[in-house]
Amino acid sequence: MNGMSYTGTGTVTLSLDGTNQTASLPLIAGTTGPSVIDIRKLYADLGIFTFDPGYGGTAACESKITYIDGDAGVLLYRGYPIEQLAEHSTFLEVAYLLLNGELPNAEQKAVFERGVIRHTMLHEQIRSFFNGFRRDAHPMAVLCGVVGAMSAFYHDSLDINDPEHRRISAFRLIAKVPTIAAWAHKYSSGQPFVYPSNKYGYAENLLHMMFAVPTEEYRVSPVLARALDLILILHADHEQNASTSTVRLAGSTGANPFACIAAGIASLWGPAHGGANEAVLKMLGEIGHARHIPEFIAKVKDKNSNARLMGFGHRVYKNYDPRAKIMQRTCHEVLAELGIKDDPLLDLAVELERVALHDDYFVSRKLYPNVDFYSGIILKAMGFPTSMFTALFAVARTVGWVSQWLEMIEDPSQRIGRPRQLYTGAAQRDYPPLAARG
Ligand code: ACO
């Protein structure tokens, strides 16, 4: 096979060494990408499970939403290349595409955008939730808590078996998560909450709620609004990553969508996933200057150090993450628009990338920059505090999570997610009385 993916159908025959038992397992082909072995009858036929910690070789579901070819560095939303969507589309159009499978016509686009814009306000009682947090709480902690609390406020859309309830919940989540994220920032900075305004588009509104203050007129920069919209597009979905799989697993139990998205936010928070954008800036700050790069790279390569080059490497991409390429370009454009001629962080990041891409450690392991390597530098230049980076990722990914959750609920073959295990603990034994224990 030479590492090439196999895309045919047919069967795979497994035989159990030392017995005459065999299992003939169907091979299912997708539209594109490697075929999968259907192992659902494996236990019944051979009495064995499969073992795949981290799910590196396991397809957990069937999906029509997003496709990644990690070797070629390709990312498609509903078949459309991310580069084309980044250049020509908008975040809300991409949201419609992910949710519905097709791009909207002009009327569908207008109706959808109006639907989202009209759901941006939060139940006023939700305000009091924020007061329960310490002012120095991380915005992801606040986001996770308040999104989870939405299920206590929107009782009229919690029946997951009712398509209309699901539709309203989807609108509520996509529209209200930016308000909650922006308020998490306002709360930590001690500034008054800024209510959403229907005169703005999605990204504009987010900037307005983040940065406006009652004392001054806030003019939303079209350049920054477009840059933020682009960042949201790039983060909107990424097939069965850790947080999306978390949403699907929580949703498979019949939990309500607000609880499922709160679970996704918790999963995104980790530095190996969405928390990496924040970690990249911290790392650049610690390196401080290009002359310290060799020392840092040596530390990353030292297996005893636990240090990683944050924003590098990906479970699926063994090539340049296509989002990172767009992000790098956007980074230069945004800094130019903001009149930032020399950004020491960007210079350091570019040099760090150059050194890593010429180092055999990274080359041999196929470690390339991922989406998070440059996003933090852009967001920082736009004025976002570092602690908000992952929250912005969550805002964008909410549409992916909701699309994947809807697809799962509507899938007739959907069952509760319940992996098995390889048990290596103690075999059955009898309970000893206390006096008999050594
Ligand atoms: N820096 C240094 N070494 C790395 C890095 C890195 N960033 N990433 C992987 N490696 C090394 C590992 O040490 C391992 O080396 P070994 O074979 O000698 O043991 C090899 O590359 C393979 O790495 P794994 O950990 O097996 O890869 P995995 O697919 O499990 O992890 C992950 C992927 C978590 C993204 C990893 O590359 C990483 O930690 N990167 C840094 C964090 C990051 O940027 N995360 C964002 C990912 S994108 C996103 O979620 C939006």
Would you kindly provide a written description of the structure presented here, covering whatever features stand out?
With 438 residues, the chain is mainly alpha-helical. The radius of gyration is 24 Å and the shape is globular. The model has no long low-confidence stretch (mean pLDDT 95).
Structure at a glance:
The chain has 18 helices and six strands. The protein has about 450 residues and is mainly α.
Distinct small molecules: acetyl coenzyme *A
Q: Which range does the strand content fall in?
A: 5-15%
What would you call the shape?
globular
Q: What's the helix count?
A: 18
Question: What fraction, in percent, of the residue positions are helical?
Answer: 40-55%
Element-by-element helix/strand order:
EEEHEEEHHHHHHHHHHHHHHHHH
Number of strands: 6
Q: How do the strands of the widest beta sheet line up side by side?
A: 1-2-3
The largest β sheet comes out as:
3 strands, antiparallel
Q: Any low-confidence stretches, pLDDT <50, length ≥5?
A: none
Mean pLDDT across residues: 95
* Amino- and carboxy-terminal Cα gap: 55 Å
Computed CA radius of gyration, to the nearest angstrom: 24 Å
Supply the helix-strand structural class. mainly alpha
